[in-house]
C-alpha cells in the first residue's frame, strides 16, 4: 500500500510538472504570436536607391507592374488617362471604411494591399471590400523590411498574409507589393532578387507611378499634387488607409477623384488597368482557395485571435495589479503609520499592567538544534507574574525531550506524546497548562527577555482575545534569509498593523502568539482541519467577536529556511493552508455580527492582497520581458523602475516603522529576479493543489539552531532556582505537580504543588498506562473533567456545567467527544461548543459536527474514563520515564 501511494504521488507530481510546462509553453507561444503580429512598422516610403548592376534596364525603364513568373521578365504600364488607386497598410477599422465611403460616393473601385496581421483582426472589412468590387493584394504579414529577412521568413510573410486573405474572402491573390517599395526606376540590387523570388512564387509585383506621400501628412494640397500624374499619363497612385491619422488622405481623395474625372481620367483596379494595357485580354489575379487552404486559414486566424484575447486579458490584469499595488501602498502608508504613532504615544496604555502568570506552550518535533536556546529564552523571561513553560514533545526521534529535561530548569516541564501533528500538540499543552494566559511558540523560536511581558499587556483590555507578536528572522547570513527578513518586515509586520486597525487580523504567527484560555474555549481549541492552524484559529477568533491585536514590542526570533527548497516547502504549506482556512470560513461572508464583519472585510483583504495580487504579480515580469524585446524598451524600463521605486519606498517605510536598519535592502533588486518568481510558482502550485483537491502532507524543515544568532537572549535563573515571581503551583525545584492541572481550555484548580498526590498506574503492554484511582482518593478523571488528578470546582463538572462531583461511586463512564450536544455547519470553527451563556455582543460561531472536527485520540486521552491511556509526562527536573 505504501509503495502504491508513492507511485501515485510520483504520477501526480509528474502530471503537475507536465501541466506546468504546457501552461508556460502556451503562455510563451501566445506572447511570441502577439509580439510577431504586433511588430511595429513605419508607413511605406522610399529610403534611397542603391546600386543597380543586376536590375534589367527594361525594368528600370518599364512600367509599375512587373511579371517575373515562368522565368521571363515583363513590365506593364497603364494606358493614358487611366488611374488605379492603391492603398497600403490596411485594413484599419477607423480609416478604411471612411475611405471606402469616398470611393463609393464617386463610383470608384481601388486595390488594397493589406497587412496580414490587420486582416486577421478585421476580416469583415476585407470581406466587405471584396464584395464591393475592390481588389485585394498582399503586402506582407508584419510589414518588415524583407531584404533583411531570410528566404523562408519572406515566404512565411507572403503565405500567412495569403491565408488571412483566404479566411476573409475565400480567394487567393496574385498581386504583391513589397513593403517600403516605390517606383520601378527605384529598384536596386537589394530588392530586385525579391521581385524575382516573388515571381517564382506566382506573384505579380506592383510598384507605383505617383506617390502622394500622404504618410507624412504634408497637407491636402500637397497630397493632391503628389498623386496627380504628368500630362495624360496613366498612373498607379500610392496612398495609405492605415498607419496613422488619415484625415488628410480622405479629404484629398474626395478632391482628387472628381478633379481627375473632369480631366477625362477613368479609375480602375490594378488588374483592370493591366487588362486595358493588354488590349482587353483577361488577367487572372486571384483564384479560389482549396479546402486545405481554408483549414490552414482558420487555424491562423484563430491563433491570432486567441493571442489577442489573452494579451488583452493580461493588460486588464496588469491594470488590476497596478490598482491593487497602489491601493495597498496607500493603505499601508496611511494606516500603518497611524498605528505606529498611536501605539508609540506616551499616553498610550492597554490598561493596568498585566501581571498574571503565563503558560508558554512549545510544540516540538525533532527540534534538537534549537530547542535549548528557545526554552532557555522563554524560561528566563522577565514577566513579573511568572512563566511556566510546557514543552510538548510530539513523538520526536532525535532526543528533543531529553535535551530539555537535561537543562534542569525549574519552571519547565516536558510532556511526551505520540506524533499527532502540531494542532494536537498545542491542544495537549493547553490542557496541561496551569494558567489562563497562554503563549504558543514554535520550537525553533527565541524570545527576548521582555517579549512575554510585552506580549500579554494587551489582555488588560477585556475585549482582546489574542495577540500577535513581532517575528524577526534570526539567521540573516544567507541571501535567501535576507530576502525573507525583508518579506517579514514588509509583508508580515507592516500588514499586521493594517489588519490591527481594521480589526480583521487573519493570522497570529506560530512563532509568537498569546491567547486567553476562554478565547480558545470559544473556538474549540486548535483545529486539525487545515495546514495553517494559526490562520484557522485566528479567523475563528475574529468570527467569535474577540479582538486580535498586534504588539510590536513583543519580538521573537525565528530560523528562516536557508535554502530555496526549504523555503519552497514552507511557503507551499503556508499558501495552501491559508486557502484552506479561507474556504473553511467562507460562510462568514453572509454572517451577521463580528463573523460577518470579518467575512466581508477580512476575507476580501486576504483574497485581494494575499492571493490575487501575488498571483497576478508575475504579469509585471512577463510584460517586462515582452516590452524589452518586442515593444518600446524605454517606456517598459521606466514603468518597471516606477513599480520598483514604489516597492523600495514601501520597504523603507516598513523598516523605519519596525526600527530596522536599512542595510539589508541592498538585496532588494536581486529579490525581484529570483525570490519573487519563486513565490509566484509556490502560490500557483498551491492554487493548483487546492483546485485539484489534492492533499498536502506536512513538510518538516531542517533546522540549524540559528534563530537566536541575532537576538538578545534571556538569562536563566542561576543555580536552578525558580524566579522569585514564580506562580503558585510551580515548584522551586523538582518536578512540577502533574495533578495541579486544568480542564480542557478551562481555568485550573489551584492544586497542590509537586509533592502532592500522584496516580497508581498499571503499565500496559503497549507502553501506556491506564489510570487508576489517584492516591489522594479522588476518583479517576472522567470525560471532559479537569486534567488528570485535578479537583474541579464543587458542584460542577470540568466544562463548567452544573452536576454532582465527585460522581456516584463506581461511575467511571466516559463522555463522548466532542459533547453530544455539539452542533454546527460546514463553515463552523470546530471543536466542542462553548458552554454557558454567550458573552454580551459576541457572535457564537457554529461548531462543526464530530466527524469533521474530532479531537485526536492523544488529546481525548486526557478526558477519558478510568481505563484511559495516560499521556507520559515528566518535569524537566524529573527522572527519565517518570509518569505524571
Give a quick rundown of the structure.
The protein is an alpha/beta fold and 884 residues long. The strands form five sheets. The protein has a nine-stranded mixed beta sheet with strand order 17-20-18-19-16-13-14-15-24, sandwiched between helices.
Explain what you see.
This protein is α/β, with parallel strands linked by helices and 884 residues long. It has 25 helices and 24 strands. Strands 17-20-18-19-16-13-14-15-24 form a nine-stranded mixed sheet, with helices on both faces. Strands 3, 4, 5, 9, 10 and 11 form a six-stranded parallel sheet that branches. A four-stranded mixed sheet has the order 2-1-8-7. Helix 6 (151-169) crosses helix 11.
Features:
nine-stranded mixed β-sheet, 25 helices, 24 strands, alpha/beta, 884 residues
Low-confidence stretches: 714-884
Q: Which class of secondary structure composition applies to the elements? A: alpha/beta
Task: Say how many strands there are.
Answer: 24
Largest beta sheet: what is the strand line-up? Answer: 17-20-18-19-16-13-14-15-24
What is the radius of gyration computed over CA atoms, rounded to a whole number of angstroms? 40 Å
* Main sheet properties: 9 strands, mixed
Mean pLDDT: 75
Question: Roughly what percent helix?
Answer: 40-55%
What separation lies between the terminal Cα atoms?
38 Å
Number of helices: 25
Strand content: 5-15%
Form type: elongated
